[in-house]
Amino acid sequence: MTSLTLNAQQLLQRRLPWLVAGLGALVVASWLLNTPEGVLGKADAVGYAVCHRIDLRSFHLGDRQLPLCARCTGIYLGALLALGVLGRKRLGALPPRWIVVVLIGFIGVMGFDGVNSYLTFFPGLPHLYEPQNWLRLVTGTFDGLAMGALIAPVFNQTVWARWENRAALAGPRDLLGLSAGGLILISLVLTDNPVVLYPLAILSAVGVVALLTVLDTVIVLVVARRENRAQGWGGALLPLIAGFTLAMLQIGLIDAVRFAVFHSWGGFNLLG
Asked: Can you give the residue ranges of every domain in the chain?
């Protein structure tokens, strides 16, 4: 009986990568077949799962609305930048306490601006200032930088067998460098240049998938009790595929529910 159990476990372990990859391919193929055509159409469908996509609160590529609203464009571009810069090394320590406070401040400022903006939905309610898309973009970008900076070390602590107990965001120079990168992103979006906005529109959708994949990979490893096993990217590939599959499944399910309710891939209508 023990031998049969061991054989079954070994067989499952050998086939698990194929099962995970097959499930991932099935989820992605189903999503691709049931979402709008074209690269920007797919980016719209990604944004549809996480963003209200209100036209008036979005930047535009010519006459075409970007896949995400101004705030979400900033959030996911900022998160993608932070994950790319801070997650490439296996540094798993959280930033120093004062930097964590600053990052939480970035998140808090975005939340404050979001509440002020939300109040304008209701005529007659007081709000401190008139919301602006450029301000939504700025606060969203720094919120995304903060989220990526806090999530990257958690990912490294969970995935790698040998991670370094050092912070990637360790001092003022690192924080200023990351913030400068965020300001460059903001400046590029505000150029309103279609040549610049097109790749940024795609990257904002990539940022959604990347952030969800990182978070879901951590969840998968913790639930499966397989933390700290990957020696290299080859060993991390299976958990990442599982995280990506779960991320696409989440996006697809939200897309399906929202489309079933509103029968449109467009954003919410402020007028009705």
From this structure: 23-262
